[in-house]
Design a protein that fits this description.
mainly alpha
Amino acid sequence: MICNECGKRPATVHITKIENGKKTNMHLCEQCALAKGALSMNTGFSINDLLAGMLNTGTPLPIKVDFMDDPSCPVCGMKYSRFRETGRFGCGSCYKSFGDRLTPLFRRIHGNINHTGKIPQRTGGRLKIMREMESLKAELANAVKREEYEKAAEIRDKIRALEKSSGRDE
């Protein structure tokens, strides 16, 4: 695709703008985007902007709206509406205070709401093997379901080898 502005260079920046319900697309080369101010090396974009943007699901309103059901943290007093604006919590207790409202956000960002974390190499060897076996068992079930019996046999052998190495025979 060629730049809409200069018509010479390939477009590498694609901008979709929605104003008053009307959608417009612009395809610009890097030089024209920099000249228009659409692309800046110092955008000032932060993770807080990302979180605040994900929380604001509706269209921005020109006036500030206070909600009747606007819970606040009992420790620091921060209101949920303030968290939506800034994307930052006031303290560690805010997680519990706003928990039911944060679940969909975490699911959207991380794909899951349960944190599995990392396993320390020195102490987590057994746990790591257990998780790998669980993963292999799920893979085995899928292989059998897809009737890929040779692959299923390989996975079964891997599971048996892991069980032997962990001292667990099932």
